[in-house]
Amino acid sequence: MRDGSTLEKIEKARLNYEHTFQQAATLEEKSPVKFLIALYRGNFTNLLLSLLFYIVKSAPIFVLPIVTANIINIVSQPSSHSERELWINFAVIVVVILQNIPTHTWYVSYMSRAIRHVEAGIRSALVRKLQQLSITYHRDLQAGRLQSKVLRDVEAVEQLSKQVMLTLMPALINIIVSIVITVRNSWSVSLFFVMTIPAAILLVRIFRKKISSTNKEFRKEIEKMSSKMSEMVEMIPVTRAHGLEEVEIERIDGTLRKLQGKGLRLDIAEAYFGASNWVTFQLFQVFCLLFTAFLAYKGQIEVGNIVMYQGFFSMILGSVSALITTYPNMAKGFESIYSITEILNSQEIERNDGKLKLREISGEIAFEDIQLVYPGSEHHVLEEVTLTVRAGECIAFVGESGAGKSTILNLVTGFLRPTGGKLTIDGVNIDDIDLREYRKFISVVPQTNILFSGTIRDNIVYGLPDITDEQIYAAIEMANLSEMVKRLPAGIHTKVGEHGGKLSGGQRQRIAIARALIRNPKVIILDEATSALDNASEYHVQKAMQELIKGRTTFIVAHRLSTIRDADRIVVMKQGRIAEIGTFDELIASKGEFYHLKQLQI
């Protein structure tokens, strides 16, 4: 058991953790570098220690050219040097090389702590943001694109971090140290070294736009492919059932061909960039060799110094070349940051802070002249809808597809907000209510139930850790699941498979009803809960639903009109308006819209 102080520390750390990534997410999309710096806030100590150990562990590459030059000078001029100097230089380089083992390990260790923290943090920030975004946003965002952002783009940002830590920072240190040592020996030779920097900047400026644009095109094509692959997997039963395998293969192949073309353009752009970089700096090195050889020929420097300058110049060229060749990968990372911030910067979120937290509700819900128009459309989805639902009343909604039935249910759950009029819960405007608390009093049983790949028990008690087995079996009994559970070898601990694939539609629906029952909700929403079932399954589910709605405010959307005979009132929707309201018998007797719908089903 954790004591109170430990829990407080964990909660404080969690809040600080969330604050860091929320702060990073609020940065402008065109500031990927600022975004990256914000992500590493709180890890600067690890980064500084990593940098310190890098400098120490890299000592051999700085010392080796100097020792090599010293040894050549000692050997070429033995009269001016002693044998002892030779052994001192040898001992120095051996010690400097051996220290690399522990210091390199510490360098990677501190760097990895920072990078892994950021990698986990970005994914955590995305998960938190996805839980805050509106249902409308989720409907518009394809699952495949989302997976690409959470997996591929986060991985690309992680690689960007590694490029910065493993390549960028070491390269800059190598360049600075090499130039400083060279300036101390010969300012004229150091000019060659310094000139590599503007040359590198010029190359980056020449190729930057081309590489950035091709990276963006490639990233968008990857997202499209991921989305289509996700759709393909979901459609496999339909595809196989209709013999459309070749059609589906051709559809995916078309996307893959586009991706191949975008990838080829990106590879060619990077190839031109890399080749231009290599040729430019090889020419620099040749001219540096010629210049230092000329100085040695004139007696202005010792012969061994040619090797030293070539060593340092090779180090600089290698560092500058590394900086340039990693630029395409860094460009991918920056493009992935843009992709991630599309989600993190989205303002389509539910705002519940500071709103009324309901501790109890009776279930009285009133629609007062409700209007609903989707953004960018002039068509009213709902218009002049006025209805008061008493606590504990069962209301059924019927009508043609597109009449607005499911839209009303989405208003009750708070997934949609009216653009006109007022929706109240126990007399309180839903706009003033903390929806997270309000939804604790609601249970929803949709037409297509969503089960995760755990056990029956896991799916029933989802989000309720303190439920006892007695409560679970009571819910199972009321959901008419007892006989099914008894027949299973593992009982309630039976695995249901992905999306409940090991169960029938009726069994999945009754598990969803048990999940709703165990929460003891005040408001029940049944969205065509039996429309996809056969008669036997519908019978069992109907019996379960009778237990579910007892004493609770219930909203039912149904296409099978026979299933709502016992509803307290039936609301007939037509083109976003209420056409009729009454009991089953009253509406049949009136021979209006409901009567005609019923006749169509006979």
Automatic annotation (TrEMBL):
Transmembrane segments annotated in the record for this chain: 51-74, 86-107, 164-183, 189-207, 271-295, 307-327
Subcellular location(s) of the protein: Cell membrane
Single GO term (MF): ATP binding
Protein's name in the database: ABC transporter ATP-binding protein
Topology in the lipid bilayer: Multi-pass membrane protein
Record Pfam families: ABC_membrane, ABC_tran
Domain called ABC transmembrane type-1: residue spans: 48-332
UniProt KW keywords: ATP-binding, Membrane, Nucleotide-binding, Transmembrane, Transmembrane helix
All copies of domain ABC transporter, residue ranges: 365-600
